[in-house]
C-alpha cells in the first residue's frame, strides 16, 4: 500500500471522530502553549528589559543602601532596613577620596511616595512623577541628554539653587505652546525655575522615563529633609580596563566614609548594569525551568491521552483491521496507519499550541512596548517533541492493531 493512501485513510479515520480528535489534541496544545508562550514572552522582553536595566552609563557602578530584588516584607527586608542611610556628607566625603580616580560621580536621591506633581499657572501634571535631586553628573550616569537649556552645575549644587530640569512629559503637559526655560513651576509645594529639558528617552518596563524632574541634591534635601533619605552613588571608571581597579578603590573609600573596621562586612550594596542583567537572567532561567516542568507534565498527560484514544480506536476498528488484513494488507501498513494517526493528532495540537503561545507571548510584549519575536528554535523543538510523543505513545496501540489475527478480528463484534 502506498504511503499516500495510508495517509488519506488516517485522516479519514480522524475526521470520522472530530470531537474526540480535537479533545485529544487539546492536551498537547495546552502543554506546548505553556512553554512557547513563556519562551516567546521572555525572548521578546529580554532586549527591552536589558535596555531598561542598563540605566547606568558606560563603565558605571553604583553604591546603595538597598540591593535589588528585595520584597516588601520578610527577614531580608528587615535586615537591610536596619542599615544606616547613606548621607550626603558621606557621599561628598567619598567624592573627595575618589578624586584622581574618577571624574564622574553622580549623587542622587528620589521621592519614594509617588506623590510628586508639577504645576504651572492653571496647568498641572498627574501625580506620580519621578522627582529627585542630583548633581551635574546625572545625565552621564543615567544616560540622559539635555535637549534645551543647560545642565545642572557644581555651583547649583554647592549653593542649593532652586532650579530644575524637566522631562518631555512635563514639557508637553505644562508648556504645550511655549518654551519652559526661565518659567517658575511648583513641585510638591516648592517653587523652582526651569533651566533645561531632557531629550526624549522613551519607556522601560512599560513606564515612561520622560516624566522626570531633577533639582540640585542639596536643594532637594533642604526642601524635603534628609530624614529617612539614603543617597545613591554612581561612579564611572575612566576605562573598561580600569573598571575592576576603580571598583576596588571605591569599595575601600566607601568603607572609610562608613567608618567600618577591617572585620566588618559591607553595610552597602554594589551593583552595575551587568549585575542587574545577570539577576534578570537568573529570574528568566527560573521562569523557563518552571515552564518546562509544567509543560512536561502536561505533555506526559496528553501522551497518555493519545495512547488511550488510540487503544479505543483499535478496539472500535478491530473488524475493519481484520478485513484489511484478510485481503492482503501487511502488518507494516496497519502499523504505519495508526502511527500516522497518532503523530497527526500530536502535531496538530503542537502547531495550535505554538501559534497560540506566540500570539499570547507577543501580545504581552506589545503591551509592555517590547519588540515582537518568533522563537524559531523553541517552535522547532516543540514540533520535534510532539512528533516524539505521537510515535512514543502511539506505537503500542499501532503495534497491537498490526498484530491482530485476521480470523479473530473478523469474528469480533
UniProtKB/TrEMBL annotation:
The UniProt record lists the keyword Protease: no
Domain named ABC3 transporter permease C-terminal: residues: 293-406
UniProt-recorded name of the protein: ABC transporter permease
Transmembrane spans: 21-45, 289-314, 334-358, 378-399
Location within or outside the cell: Cell membrane
Keywords carried by this UniProt record: Cell membrane, Membrane, Transmembrane, Transmembrane helix
Pfam families for the chain: FtsX, MacB_PCD
Organism: Horticoccus luteus
Classification of source organism: Bacteria, Pseudomonadati, Verrucomicrobiota, Opitutia, Opitutales
Keyword Kinase recorded: no
Domain MacB-like periplasmic core, chain residue ranges per copy: 21-241
GO molecular function: transmembrane transporter activity
Membrane topology type: Multi-pass membrane protein
A GO cellular component annotation in the UniProt record: plasma membrane
Assigned protein family: Belongs to the ABC-4 integral membrane protein family.
